[in-house]
Amino acid sequence: MTHEPDPARPDTGVLEALQVYRAAEAAMRRRTGAAMGIGENDLLALRLILDNTAAGRPTAAKNVSAYLGVSSASTSALIDRLVRGGFVQRRPSTVDKRSTELVPTPAALGETGPLLAATQEQLAAATAELSPDEAETVTRFLTRMRETVDRIAAERRRANRPEKGLRQGDC
Description:
With 171 residues, the protein is mainly alpha-helical. It has a domain at 12-105: Orthogonal Bundle (Arc Repressor Mutant, subunit A). The protein is built from 6 helices and 2 strands. The chain has helices spanning 10-36, 40-54, 61-68, 72-84, 106-128, 132-160; strands at 88-92, 100-104. Helix 1 crosses helix 2 (40-54), helix 2 crosses helix 4 and helix 3 (61-68) packs across helix 4 (72-84). The model is unreliable at 164-171 (pLDDT under 50).
């Protein structure tokens, strides 16, 4: 169901468009993951690993946990699924020999890389239609939105963390 933006509040149209985009993007991730036989979080983790590998950055399990905001137990299960699916392998870390890093398999690079690259190319083509001023405005807006959701998440974490020395019910 779509809502008509309130002409007196043009920001509602922007927020509506952002919500519709986020829903479409999430649906695309679900479809892509289903086509690959993996879940949405698995796909997000694989994308992180592929992006880090392409940039020459190692990826550890803790990076996946932080990126997805999930527990280490959930991350271990997710990584196990990616390993069983032939998308990722564990290897000794190049930075810290006591830990492991996650690297995409040649099969993942061969199958997944082109699929995600094609998506990225189409998204880049859509952004290429923006003027430099429009691109700057959109970038500034999206950066503010990311900072806002990060701040909200941090506030929620603080609100859910009991103060040291206080027992539940002491407040």
